[in-house]
Amino acid sequence: MISVIVPVYKVEKYLRRCVDSILKQTCRDFELLLIDDGSPDGCPQICDEYAALDSRVLAFHKPNGGLSDARKYGLDLCRGDYISFIDSDDYVGPDYLKILVELAEQYDVRLAAVAHECVFSDEMSFIPSEDTRALIPNDEILKTMARGKLIFSAWGKLIRRDLLAESRFPVGYLFEDNLLMPYLMCECNAVACSASRQYYWLKRPDSIMGTISEKKVYDWEMGIDRLLEFTKKNYPRDMEYMEGWVADIIWHISIDQLIFTERYPEHARRIREKYGPILKKSWSLPVVSRGRKLKSTIFLLSPSCYRAMRKGWHAVMKK
Hints:
Helices cover 44% and strands 18% of the residues. It is an alpha/beta fold.
């Protein structure tokens, strides 16, 4: 059996869409744990409503402790041989669990993953995609992640329970997936993947990924530094791929958000000094897009000039 764990907090607008998509799975052998993490809106009542309507749904209520704490709570209560995490503002395609189970059984792996699609609408729609499957051996996992073909998220995956026996999401941190998932995947001999876009990731401006804070910046840095050190120690041949990944994603998570905040001088200066050596190598690193290479050059030459260019670009795009 599969245990699907959905932490719930302040998602009244999206929760029904998420749960409905799970209950409509073509694979029927699962339990759905809705973990109400002290949500102050109508989510607790919605969870109880679904639990009363469908015997596969179990609703639990706990004081607010954050996403990692809610996932941990679900892991301690679930009964499945496999675990799948779904965020409560996202939704999944009808063959989400079916494909994940087939991948795990076909390739005899402890972790399987499907592709995702970013969505910006409150409507639920599905995009046809080919179910092309592949086995990624251990020595290719970090490279595949760096190329963006296997992302660090906990969602969109099926994880065998024993893989999580001694590993838990760190409580009290943002970007908790980055602090666990790369290392969890690297514990596997191989990971099986499908190109079928069965997970639909809602991009919300008010989400953790869409906002900026001092804690967010520091937690992001900690995760990046830890992953770079892990790669250097355990997969030194992949170091340039991981540095390329950092040079490519640093803009979305850090620089381009810091640029428009009052904390820009302090934090952007530190980012520039700390990761400057990687940014300087952008043109020779794999997986870095041409646009990010140009950004790196301008930012390193003059952060203030880059800031002015970004502000100008945003002004044009708003027209």
